[in-house]
Amino acid sequence: MVLKESLLRIRKSAPSVRRSLLRLVKRPEFGALTGAVVLFVFFSIVSDVFLQPSSFVTVLYGSSIIGIMAVGVTLLMIGGEVDLSAGVAVTASALTSALISTHYSINVWVGVVMGLMFALLVGFVNGILFVKTKLPSFIVTLSTFLMLTGANLALTRIIAGSVSSPSVAGLPGYASAQAVFASTIHIGSVNVSVTVFMWIALVIIGNWVLRHTHVGNWIFASGGDVRAARASGVPVDKVKIGLFMGVAFCAWLAAMHTLFAFNVIQSGEGIGNEFLYIIAAIIGGTLMTGGYGSVIGAAIGAFIFGMANKGIVYAGWEPDWFKFFLGAVLLLAVLVNLYVRKQSEKRS
Amino acid sequence: MSKRSWLIVTIALLLGLLGGFVWGNNKSSTKTETSTKRLKISVITHAGPGDTFWDIVRKGSEAAAKHDNVDLQFVSDPDGSRQAQLVQQAIDAKVDGIAVTLSKADAMKDVVVKAQKAGIPVVAINGGVDLAKELGITFIGQEDYNAGKAVGEKLKAMGIQNPICIIHEQGNVGLEARCQAIIDVLPNTKRLYVPGTDMTQTKSQITAELQTQTDADAIVGTGAQYSVTAQKVVDELGKTKQITVGSFDLSSEVTQEIIDGKVAFTVDQQPYLQGYQAVDALWLNKNGLFKLGGGQPVATGPAIITKADAATVLQYAKDGIR
Fold first, then answer.
1. How far apart are the first and last CA of chain A?
2. How far is B10 from chain A (nearest CA, A)?
3. Cα–Cα nearest to A137, from B37, A212, A147, A129
4. pLDDT tens digits for range B66-118
5. I want to staple A245 with a disulfide (CB 3.0 to 4.6 A). Which of A123, A170, A238, A240 is the partner?
């Protein structure tokens, strides 16, 4: 096949070129990158609007909404755990900010800080429950997911008397909060949402922490082999609690964007999104078993999600097919990732 | 897995994707009845998957698209922010007209203004008449508050005092308005929220509610299929003498039940007409700058359908256009 031939060609080429090419192919992101290129070319051909700058910016926006959460979720998955409450945590954090700000008619920035505190609390609770009970993170976060879902609905009804929070527009501090969390930045002929920049910044920071700090080593170790990690002195419990709080921090960012972009939060939203973040991480090469993965891969995974989600509409297809398409892309990406890893292991 | 199996699976997936694309693109080659320039129109609603009401709207849009030589894209998302993104995509694709529902008013407002600024004509259908008025765009539909008021008055005339109003879609301002109007007429009305996309869950919740609210004397679904489910529950609980079942919107099932006397009435907002006019009003705007309604909302309802008129409507309901 093409891959085998190119790997053979790599073997025959000069040693230093061969070494660097082989290193590229061995990286966990290679499968995702291939998938992204294929999808980009595919949609460029089937849709006449996909390549327009304004369409591309829309794709980036859709990718960034998933991508911001995917960074935190990927780090957690590399650390060996999963967080099913990630989707509703975004809604819960946004509701906290919205309900506090509107109920007391105070500066929205107080609400913003309260939203952060609440999100970090949820992350801490997930982490401490996991560490103390020693139950699988799937079970722990499944419970917090259910509790948050119910609390979102019930508390909103008690405080605001309806299924959505009152609008925060017009409260003091709104203009500055909107500028920080939900503005668009004019570049050339297009308007790029600030979420894209948040996403890129998170990816750079996340990748740097993972690959260039001892904390990153701790994360790989905690996900790869907990006992060996503990024996080497890695503070596994603290790392895992920290990772859950990392997901919570990303949830707060996503929440603040949603709040200041749309002013009103529906208390029932967010359910189902937790799987989209996990999908982005897996497409990017992160394993469900932990100990292996990439933040950059997850960013590519989020980008693939955005391209598939938007591309289908730009191509004029029936949007009903979207989930089918996403599942097929996920399967393809995982197969390619597996194949590439097997091939590169053979040749190392 | 052997190398050949990898190959087969990968090729099968790729062929599947390619086939989907080819199939998806082979739809709009119907003969049209007009010689005006082919227009691209996007109808973007807040429909959740499996909601039969929107199938009727879609049939209307497709009929108009056939008559007016229109390339129709009919998409939806029940999540407000995602519905807004779909509108953004229509703007990116530089379509000739956009029809939206404004039931999730806060999420949709900014992007509709963007569409207007981009010079794309926008009409609103079905929900969000207040925002439509504020933005100065044509609204085609039923003002939900009026529909709710009609139902409230009908229930009052029937001597009902403790109705239950079922809302199947969170955050839908139209459904909330319908129930609010009933509450304004009959203050003891209770709201019941059910997960509209899951009928089994919906049925259990209605059952639980009717078992708890022992003095309930009527139950009204804000969507036809939910009223049909409510009627099943009332039947199973043996409370058909005590509880009157009412509905909003038509379906062939609910029409049959009105004929059979199981459901007392429904309110028809003629969704086929909303879908049809969504496309046709935009076509008229592009071919003569006509503004349907002249600045006023165009009403497609409410019309109360009782046993007397149900029989005449039944065939059309079965055809999926009423």
1. 19
2. 7
3. A129
4. 999 999 999 998 888 999 999 999 999 999 999 999 988 889 999 999 999 99
5. A123
Q: How far is A109 from chain B (nearest CA, A)?
A: 21
Helix (H, G, I), strand (E, B) or coil at B137: coil
Choose among A222, A234, A221, A334: nearest CA to A287. Answer: A334
Query: How confident is the model over A239-256, as a mean pLDDT?
Result: 97
- Given A58, A262, A310, which is nearest B80 (Cβ)? A262
Q: B49: which chain A residues are within 8 Å (Cβ-Cβ)?
A: 320
pLDDT digits (tens, 9 = 90+) for B196-225: 878 888 999 999 999 888 899 999 999 989
**Domain co-membership, B213 together with B185:** yes
- The CA distance from B21 to B187, in Å, is 53
Complex confidence, ipTM: 0.72
User: Does a structural domain hold residue B87?
Assistant: yes
Q: Which positions in chain A touch B7 (Cβ < 8 Å)?
A: 1
Judged by CB atoms closer than 8 Å, whether chains meet at A319 and B93 is answered as no
Is the distance from CB of B100 to CB of B47 less than 8 angstroms? no
B265 beta partners: B246
Domain hosting B88: range is 39-141+271-290
What total of structural domains would you count in chain B? 2
Contact of B79 with A52, CB cutoff 8 Å: no
Is there a single domain that holds both residue B48 and residue B196?
no
**Partners of residue B73 in chain A, C-beta under 8 Å:** 313, 316
